[in-house]
């Protein structure tokens, strides 16, 4: 029986290798709207035709781009030319077409859990054909909501947590298959399925998604998705052999430290303004002076981190113009890559491949030692980001410090120190605050975010800090419920310090929906219910 299981696993692994294209992406990347539309794109974004720059990049051309550009060049000289009317004639807004969902029917008598379960269908999308910047995916997916009408990478994991609690395993698996499809096609999981996101990824939660599905379908799933996990790992480690010749010993997403060892950073393959935020990035650059390409790269890299934006990326915590994301070794990214290495080793263990188990376990243990050397602040008793150019910690305390607890790489002594710091400095009336800095950036105080609350809670539980974890969960769930009862809204971020509880800051208005809030709420409320029943 054991031999049959092993043989079946090996057959599944071989089939997955073929399906994954032996890790070789197709690399037929569609052009981003700014590249396609050139001057027209720049004129529209800079003139603020739409308050939110993401609106235009998501529109769908009604005809060939070349024809639109030619007409624009002819008409723009006319003193009576109306740019808004021109856009209306030449672009579709998917929100105004048959592809848009019907307005959600609110039932004010429904509980928050019933409301969320009703939202899953409302937030579901299917897109099997490229439409403007929106890229086709083979399966249905859940979007965050509001301005975010794509399958976002790290959002998906926290959405999946809620789908699992709701018993929507098919929807969960379809979202995972979409991520696998993007790895096969592009060589990595982009920020989301938009052409303007194809130069960057997001925090690598793919292995956690695979483990989540394995809870339902069994551990053979690890073998099925092993080639894709390896492909993602190769994406993050790409360029390792070029580090010795690279400027400042950094290339793409890898960094060589003084002892010749390697850790990772966030990066982006372009150094131009983000198309969806061209106006904001250009304004930031105008206030920053020289080295605009480096600034654009750092803004883009911070977007890959998911923390766009936060003082953890700034040399001066008050000034976004001092952003230096690509100079920083982030604690959360490297903890996630530790987990990816360990999960790959686990999958090889199922295939009875001891040499490969040892290889990836050693890689993980090596990364762990480097994290402890560069990203553990013994004086502060906290995990921190490390600025490798300055050869010192950044000095910003943030909830990224909980990732080593969530992934299990922290020692019990480290976990105790982190728990103490969370309770004394980060714990507020509505849960944990993201950083201790009030800067106006959305990934700073006073905001708290569902994914970070969840990672902290589960990380603390892993090391036995059940009381603190439950306190955080109850405070965050209480705040979310309070806002819902007052507004009938589930939003992307919350003010955990007080007031009306609604989060703020950043480049756009507070968004409703909201995918990862819904997922985390269901996961945490169900866990508290189960604990109460057990007692």
Mind sketching the topology for me?
Elements (H helix, E strand, L loop, with lengths): L1 H18 L13 H5 L1 H8 L7 H4 L2 E2 L3 H11 L7 H8 E2 L19 H11 L1 E2 L15 E2 L10 H14 L2 H18 L19 H12 L2 H5 L1 H12 L12 E2 L2 E3 L5 E3 L13 H11 L3 H14 L22 E2 L1 H20 L3 H21 L1 E2 L4 E2 L2 E2 L4 E2 L9 H5 L4 H15 E2 L2 E2 L14 E3 H13 L3 H22 L5 E3 L19 H20 L1
Antiparallel strand pairs: 1-2, 3-4, 5-6, 6-7, 8-11, 9-10, 11-12, 13-14, 15-16
Helix pairs in contact: 8-9, 8-10, 8-21, 9-10, 10-15, 12-15, 13-14, 15-16, 19-20, 20-21
In words, what does this structure look like?
This protein is mostly helical. The chain is built from 21 helices and 16 strands. It starts with a helix and ends with a helix.
């Amino acid at each position: 029986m054991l031999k049959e299981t092993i043989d079946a696993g090996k057959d599944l692994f071989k089939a997955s290798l073929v399906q994954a294209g032996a890790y070789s992406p197709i690399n037929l990347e569609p052009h981003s709207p700014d590249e396609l539309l050139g001057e027209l794109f720049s004129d529209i974004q800079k003139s603020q035709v739409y308050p939110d720059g993401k609106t235009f990049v998501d529109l769908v051309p009604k005809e060939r781009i070349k024809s639109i550009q030619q007409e624009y060049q002819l008409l723009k000289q006319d003193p009576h030319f109306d740019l808004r009317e021109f856009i209306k004639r030449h672009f579709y807004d998917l929100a105004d077409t048959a592809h848009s969902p019907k307005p959600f029917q609110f039932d004010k008598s429904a509980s928050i859990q019933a409301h969320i379960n009703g939202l899953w269908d409302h937030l579901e999308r299917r897109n099997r054909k490229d439409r403007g910047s929106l890229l086709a995916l083979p399966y249905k997916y859940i979007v965050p909501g509001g301005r975010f009408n794509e399958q976002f990478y790290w959002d998906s994991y926290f959405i999946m947590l809620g789908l699992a609690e709701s018993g929507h395993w098919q929807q969960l698996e379809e979202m995972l298959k979409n991520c696998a499809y993007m790895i096969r096609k592009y060589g990595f999981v982009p920020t989301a399925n938009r052409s303007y996101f194809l130069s960057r990824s997001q925090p690598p939660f793919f292995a956690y998604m695979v483990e989540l599905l394995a809870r339902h379908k069994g551990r053979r799933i690890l073998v099925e998705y092993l080639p894709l996990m390896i492909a993602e790992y190769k994406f993050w480690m790409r360029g390792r052999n070029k580090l010795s010749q690279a400027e400042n010993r950094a290339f793409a997403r890898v960094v060589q430290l003084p002892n010749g060892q390697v850790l990772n950073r966030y990066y982006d393959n372009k150094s131009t303004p983000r198309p969806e935020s061209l106006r904001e990035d250009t304004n930031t650059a105008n206030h920053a002076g020289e080295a605009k390409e480096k600034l654009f790269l750092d803004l883009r890299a911070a977007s890959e981190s998911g923390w766009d934006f936060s003082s953890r990326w700034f040399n001066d915590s008050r000034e976004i113009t001092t952003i230096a994301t690509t100079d920083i070794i982030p604690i959360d990214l490297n903890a996630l890559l530790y987990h990816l290495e360990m999960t790959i080793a686990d999958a090889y263990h199922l295939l009875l491949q001891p040499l490969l188990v040892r290889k990836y376990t050693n890689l993980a243990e090596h990364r762990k030692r480097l994290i402890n050397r560069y990203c553990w602040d013994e004086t502060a008793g906290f995990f921190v980001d490390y600025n490798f150019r300055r050869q010192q910690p950044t000095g910003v305390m943030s909830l990224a410090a909980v990732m080593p607890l969530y992934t299990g790489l922290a020692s019990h002594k480290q976990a105790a120190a982190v728990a103490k710091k969370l309770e004394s400095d980060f714990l507020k009336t509505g849960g944990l605050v993201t950083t201790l800095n009030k800067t106006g950036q959305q990934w700073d105080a006073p905001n708290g975010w569902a994914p970070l609350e969840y990672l902290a809670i589960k990380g603390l539980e892993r090391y036995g800090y059940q009381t603190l974890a439950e306190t955080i969960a109850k405070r965050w769930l209480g705040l979310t419920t309070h806002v819902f009862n007052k507004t009938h809204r589930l939003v992307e971020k919350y003010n955990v310090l007080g007031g009306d509880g609604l989060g703020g800051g950043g480049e756009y208005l507070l968004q409703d929906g909201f995918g990862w809030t819904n997922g985390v709420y269901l996961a945490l409320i169900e866990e508290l219910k189960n604990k109460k029943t057990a007692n």
